[in-house]
Amino acid sequence: MCGIVGYIGNREAFPILVKGLKRLEYRGYDSAGVALISEGNNLNVYKTKGKVADLEAYCADKDITGSVGIAHTRWATHGEPSSVNAHPHYSESKNLAIIHNGIIENYADLKKKLQENGVVFRSDTDTEVLVQLVEYIQNKKEVDLLTAVQVALHQVIGAYAVALLDKNNPRQIIAARKQSPLVVGIGENEFFLGSDASPIVEYTDKVVYLEDGNIAVMAPGEELKVVDVFNEKQNAEVKKVNLNLGQIEKGGYPHFMLKEIFEQPECLKTCMLGRINSEGSHVTLSAVLDYRKQLISAKRIIIVACGTSWHAGLIGKQMIENLCRIPVEVEYASEFRYRNPVVGTGDVVIAISQSGETADTLAAVKLAKEKGAFIYGICNAVGSSIPRATDTGSYIHVGPEIGVASTKAFTGQVTVLTMLALALGNVMGTVSHDDYISIVKGLQAIPDKIREVLKLNERIADLSRTFTYARNFLYLGRGFSYPVALEGALKLKEISYIHAEGYPAAEMKHGPIALIDSDMPVVVIATHNDLYEKVLSNIQEIKARKGRVIALVSKGDDTISKLADEVIELPDTLECLEPLIATIPLQLMAYHVAVCKGKDVDQPRNLAKSVTVE
Ligand code: F6R
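That is the input. Now the predicted structure with fructose -6-phosphate docked in place:
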């Protein structure tokens, strides 16, 4: 999704802005641009379709001087990806420039009115409407930029994070947010702006997360001013951001995705840190301690999420139902929010989101809260919108996830859901002491077991090369492995663009079996658990139809190795913890297939890291 960077101070703005845009590349985008107030007080806008590197090349012979600027990476919503539609957008007089994340829903109405008043537009975007409206108000009412922005935002329906420059007031940036995140970094006589903290952390650890409806005025030498559209002063709490540069760079790996796959053992250790004691005998989640009453009295739990986070939710459902005996429903947030759901007092809604900004999940949270449910968030991005909208929650603490395909966030979410089920089951008395201890100990051992699986990387890379011919893949699993099959298929399709479907293994004979022939690779999670024999029969059915089987098996399995074309051996663990191990080879396989096919692994086409539009 679009990215925003801003700088105002005494340094050259251009290098800071370009570096910031590169840090935001993970969000996915199709064009990039920058606006600078030059030394001679000109307002220069440079923008181009393509990557940030293309923008740099485009600017090579341009005037890029100036210590005030805003920059943007655009992911097209209104109007095709093009240099004209890229941000920043000038106002008609070229005195103002704007960058914008989000969607102005009533842009067509506003545009029509402005055109009737003679305003001429250059692009197809909703964003240009906003900057033209601000200028129109400035001229008509003879007011300063802040007042014009306040009046304009009053008329706007939609979601936005915006930043504006005014040539006639060159030592100021104005930024505003509603439903789209925006962070202000505070330095010595300088301010930074970002759609998240990653472009800022290199310069300062002091940040203000703007709240919905906040408008920030940044002017060097003055305090950060935060007001609303009525010019009422708003609270701007300065927070310390705990993010270091090493966490957001590739650290020697060719792609962020591979780095993030390999980080999982350490990330999960951090996720459990302070929550599981060193003896492995107890799980403490502060949210469960603080909101014990609301949680143990839950009539049912509804998990809302999208994509990979939804798959984590499916595992969480089994875990919570097993250990807490509370019925759990798992809903796509996008469906839940639009179908007048039966939800209210006595329900606990768990919202799972890596970014904490997914528009549908955030809307589902708000809806459930309005209806009286108690909301628990499981998120990664600290200070993002979803954790701020919930009653309580647990961060997964796996560090920033930059690759668009979610990897370490998934295992972090499953780990937190497991700890939640354990902690809650323990206070409710629904889990036996023996089960409790063996799952806690099992969870504690997972990072080392993932390390063992990661040693298979070379072998999985070799194996993946032999499957790049495939146009379709099937992934099968049962019980706890069914969501793993869904996740494996999603990973493959999103980065290699090979069509892949995940199914509960027993469903194969109700349709998908018709697809199986010698060109169809089938990945089967067939570890030694209660349903082993049944999955074994599925493998026989596939082989009888000449399908090619890649089986994930428990160490030492010599039955399936005789049947399957390829076998990946996994270390033993409890069945309920298998997703944390079985997902790793599937992540690696998707990664290597995509690399072999020459795809852009970290920024797959059409996808965005943070889906802040519905
Ligand atoms: C898949 C992927 C997406 C996200 C989904 C939800 O690899 O990354 O399916 O899981 O867009 O995003 P969050 O978790 O940020 O709410």
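The chain is about 35% helix and 20% strand.
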